[in-house]
Specification:
With 344 residues, the chain is mainly α. The chain contains 17 helices and no strands. GO terms for molecular function: triphosphoric monoester hydrolase activity.
Length: 344
């Protein structure tokens, strides 16, 4: 009985202190495949650990958030963005007495299927794949199928649902999933502003003045303002919503970033280079499936070739994608060996 004390204590604390609208760990809808429960950890805590130790999570540190191959040490990557989202999601969940473990697990897994070269890579694969490509759907595919040599992580329904539905257009089944959806938008808009200013693409005095008056002049102030607004709008209710004024200001800031940072002549020039690389590799592997690594060749027995090529390309880090392209198309004496290619 002592073996189960830690988990049972967590269950009791959740029952005592969580909101009536929180998703309690003991009430999970379970996993796709039955397995022996952990003596110490709840299922959501266990999911969090599985994600952190996955290969896909480790690769996030070398995937673009906004800026391709930034020179400075302090630009965000897909990994640091994920940590930002996790922190904000936990803050929202804590303020509303929701399940922080569930929110954290969803946040840590929400971008596992993201492509190299950020959303530019996602747009390219969406154009190439006959069935389209979306990073949230790919993230679910990563945890369900691709991790652990094709066995998947066998996560709980609630974490899988939150990963799939974290985009603005999604409708998560839990309030914790809704908290992650807000946290994602709060994180990338504010921290992409910081990176754009650091890169010299923006000046602080260029930010829209009305939105800055509403939300604050620094990322810290804006994030605090938005989390506070969510708390005031949602506490004691079966919802996770931001106040109308703050939500409108956030959306306006997001639109400002698309116009002035995400979709600009400079960014589109880099996107065109990424596009040519991914187009070239997609075409090569479509014509030469035998050149795919062994794991992906095996996947072709279960899934269409086009899907498997997208699995492979989206799994790549920026640097690895460049190296594979170099190996396939650039003539020189030494490049990646086939053994190196097999390692991803």
């Amino acid at each position: 009985m002592a073996d189960f004390y830690a988990k049972e204590r967590t269950y009791r604390m959740e029952e005592m202190f969580f909101s009536e609208y929180a998703c309690k760990s003991i009430s999970t809808r379970g996993r796709m495949r039955e397995e022996t429960p952990c003596n110490m950890r709840t299922d959501f805590q266990r999911d969090r650990d599985r994600i952190i130790y996955s290969k896909a999570f480790l690769r996030l540190k070398n995937k673009t958030q906004v800026f391709f191959s930034p020179e400075g040490d302090h630009f965000r990557t897909r990994m640091t963005h994920t940590i930002d989202v996790s922190q904000i999601a936990r803050s929202i969940a804590r303020s509303l007495a929701l399940n922080e473990d569930l929110a954290e697990a969803i946040a840590l897994g929400h971008d596992l299927g993201h492509t190299p070269f950020g959303h530019a890579g996602e747009r390219v694969l969406n154009e190439l794949s006959p069935n389209g490509f979306s990073h949230n759907e790919q993230s679910l595919r990563v945890v369900d199928i691709l991790e652990k040599d094709g066995k998947g992580l066998n996560l709980t329904f609630e974490v899988r649902d939150g990963i799939l539905n974290h985009k603005k257009s999604g409708n998560p089944a839990t309030l914790e999933g809704k908290a992650v959806s807000w946290a994602d938008r709060i994180a990338y808009v504010n921290h992409d502003i910081e990176d754009a200013i650091r890169a010299g693409l923006l000046r602080e005095d260029q930010l829209p003045k009305r939105e800055i008056r509403i939300l604050g002049s620094t990322s810290r102030d804006r994030i605090n303002k938005m989390i506070t607004s969510i708390y005031q709008e949602s506490v004691g209710k079966n919802q996770v919503s931001m106040g109308e004024r703050e939500a409108e200001a956030l959306e306006n800031l997001r639109a400002f970033m698309f116009k002035n940072v995400y979709i600009t002549p400079v960014s589109m020039k880099e996107e065109e280079r990424a596009k040519r690389m991914l187009f070239g590799m997609y075409d090569y592997f479509h014509k030469n499936r035998d050149k795919l690594p062994a794991f992906y060749r095996q996947l072709c027995e279960r899934f269409p070739l086009e899907q498997v090529i997208c699995d492979y390309l989206s799994s790549m880090t920026d640097k690895f994608a460049i190296a594979v392209f170099d190996y396939l198309f650039v003539p020189h004496s030494w490049a990646l060996t086939e053994r190196d290619i097999e390692e991803i």
